[in-house]
Structure formats: structure tokens, C-alpha cells
Design brief:
The chain is mainly α. The chain contains 13 helices and no strands. It comes from Candidatus Woesebacteria bacterium RIFCSPHIGHO2_01_FULL_40_22.
Length: 309
């Protein structure tokens, strides 16, 4: 029992909280990142959503305990390895879910509804949807989409239709990539631990990954073209007045090559079977880390450096 506290923390999968940083997307792209009050609200929303996601992971692990014990990687999870008793795991999930609901109710009614809806959808996913081909991918993608819009709800922000298309495309790309990597891993280890995987062909998942990868960069390109912000620093305004040749227009489009590289790199990892856990890949792959860092740097410069007119 000496390792019980570690098991309690590990089963909550705090590394997966990196996905919840997507709640800050609305704050950044509505140029409110430097608004202290709104930043604090999103930070509390991040905490609430992290508690909710941990609760769903624990609940899913309880239901999948027998199958996880047959999985080459998941067998080491606290519940599957018997490091954490199931009754205690269920209690932890209930406490985390209640804390998430309570905290979200104090922030914003729509954010509260999004957290509750997320918990319901994830419960349905764990009990039913994850075993239904195609619907399982849509459910996983929904989890990414609702995070972004929960961040918008909590600050009452509007996100353009181009950004919505981009979020949906990226979410479907990550979700289909996750399934494709799982299928590759299972085939290498001679066993299947998820019913829906047996209904997928690699060629089908390959087409999903390619289709949504293309949709992701194209929708981002459209967003970059239509939603570049106006300049706020006189230097750029004066430079543009001196000559049309020096006009800095649509500079957010400078992120497109970086986005394409990131998608290409992630897609290569998918086909190598290394994207079963997107959050771990994003934290460990150097090429992805550099591309994400560069992409974010350019985005922040464009939105907060007054470098686009």
C-alpha cells in the first residue's frame, strides 16, 4: 500500500491535462490573453476541465480493466496492475467529477453545461460508443472540440467559422491517428483489446488520417487568410504608408508552412504506430515540440506584436 498515493495520482493521468490547454485558444485568438480577469477565469476553467477529464479516464479504466490487462502498454495502468483497488478508483472518479461540476457551476452557465455534457458523452463513450466503428473516432474528436469551445464559453467569446472548421479537422486528425496507431500496435503484438479495432482496415484509417490532415492545414490556411488581426504598432503602419511593397498583410499566413510541417511529422509518427497517446508525443518528439513552439511564437507575435495590417 506504500505506492497507493502514487497510484491515485497516476490513474488520474495528469499528463493528459496538456489537452486542456486548448481551453486557452479562445483567449489567445480573441486577443484577450493579456486580460488578467479573463485569464484567471480560463485558468480556473482549465482546472475544472482537468478534474473532469481525470474522472472520465478513471471510469473508463475501471470498465476496461480486463481488456487492459491483455494490452502490452495498458496492463501497467494502476487499476489493471491492481495497484489501485476498483472501489477506491470509483470513489476517486466520483469526487473528481463532483469537484469539476461544482467549480464549473461557479464560472459560467454555458461552461457548466459543457462540462456536464462532456462527462455524459465520455460516460457513453466508455460504456457503448468506443465499441462502435467511426462513432468512436467522432466521440474522441468531440472531446477536443468541446475543450476549445468550453474556453470560449467561459469568457463569452466568439470564434469564427474558419476556426471551428480548423478545430474540427485537427480533432478528427488526432482521433483517427490515435486509432491508426492502436491498430498498428495491436497487430504487432498479436491481439485485439478494443472491439471497434477489429472492424477497421488499415487502408480505411490511412484514408481518414490523410483526409483530415489535409483538411486541418487547409482550414488553418483559410483562418490565417481571413482572420489576421490589424496592426497596433505605428512602425508597421508608417512602413506600409511609405510603400505598398513594404505592406505587411495577412502575416498570420506565415504559420502555414509550420503547420504543414507539424501535420506531416505527426502523420509520420501515426504510420509508425507512435501516436496512440497524442499527449506523450507532443511532449517528447523534438520535431513536434519545435514546430509547435515556432507556430505559437508566430501566432503570439502576430496577435500581440502589432505586425499585421
Amino acid at each position: 500500500m506504500a505506492n497507493l498515493p502514487i497510484a491515485i495520482i497516476k490513474v488520474a493521468r495528469p499528463v493528459h491535462w496538456i489537452k486542456n490547454f486548448s481551453l486557452f485558444a479562445a483567449l489567445i485568438f480573441t486577443e484577450n490573453l493579456l486580460n488578467h480577469d479573463l485569464f484567471i477565469r480560463v485558468l480556473w476553467a482549465f482546472i475544472a476541465f482537468s478534474l473532469a477529464t481525470s474522472a472520465t479516464y478513471i471510469f473508463n479504466d475501471v470498465l476496461d480493466v480486463n481488456m487492459d490487462r491483455l494490452h502490452p502498454i495498458k496492463k501497467n495502468r494502476p487499476i489493471a496492475s491492481r495497484a489501485l483497488p476498483i472501489p477506491l478508483a470509483l470513489l476517486e472518479a466520483a469526487v473528481l467529477a463532483l469537484a469539476a461540476i461544482t467549480l464549473s457551476s461557479l464560472l459560467n452557465p454555458l461552461f457548466f453545461m459543457s462540462v456536464v455534457f462532456y462527462l455524459i458523452i465520455q460516460a457513453l463513450y466508455s460504456t457503448l460508443i468506443k465499441n462502435v466503428p467511426t462513432l468512436d473516432i467522432l466521440a474522441i474528436a468531440f472531446g477536443f472540440v468541446i475543450r476549445v469551445y468550453a474556453g470560449a464559453f467561459v469568457i463569452d467569446a466568439h470564434l469564427s467559422v474558419w476556426f471551428l472548421l480548423c478545430v474540427i479537422s485537427v480533432a478528427l486528425f488526432l482521433a483517427s491517428g490515435k486509432r491508426r496507431a492502436e491498430l498498428n500496435l495491436i497487430s504487432e503484438n498479436s491481439g485485439t483489446t478494443r472491439k471497434s479495432l477489429s472492424s477497421y482496415q488499415k487502408e480505411l484509417l490511412n484514408s481518414y488520417v490523410t483526409m483530415f490532415g489535409n483538411a486541418a492545414w487547409m482550414s488553418w490556411a483559410l483562418f490565417a487568410f481571413f482572420e489576421s488581426p490589424k496592426a497596433s504598432i505605428n512602425f508597421w503602419l508608417i512602413l506600409a504608408e511609405l510603400s505598398r511593397t513594404t505592406t505587411i498583410d495577412k502575416l498570420l499566413m506565415a504559420t502555414i508552412p509550420v503547420a504543414i510541417f507539424g501535420i506531416m511529422r505527426y502523420e509520420s509518427l501515426i504510420f509508425e504506430g507512435k501516436s496512440e497517446a497524442p499527449e506523450k508525443i507532443l511532449l517528447t518528439d523534438k520535431s513536434l515540440l519545435v514546430s509547435i513552439g515556432l507556430w505559437l511564437t508566430i501566432v503570439l507575435l502576430v496577435f500581440y506584436g502589432g505586425v499585421s495590417i
